[in-house]
Amino acid sequence: ISRRGSSGWQLKVSGKPAHSSQIFQPDYGDGAIFETSRILDGFRQALSGVPNLTFNPGVIAGGTDVTLDEDTSRATAFGKGNVIAQTVLVSGDLRAISPAQLADARETMKKIVAAHLPHTSASITFSDGYPPMAPTDGNAKLLAMYSAVSEDLGFGPVTAINPRKAGAADISFVADKVDMAMDGIGLMGTGGHTVDETADLGTLDSQAIRAAVLLYRLSLKK
Question: Which positions ≥6 away from 59 have C-beta within 8 Å?
Answer without folding.
Answer: 68, 73, 75, 90, 91, 92
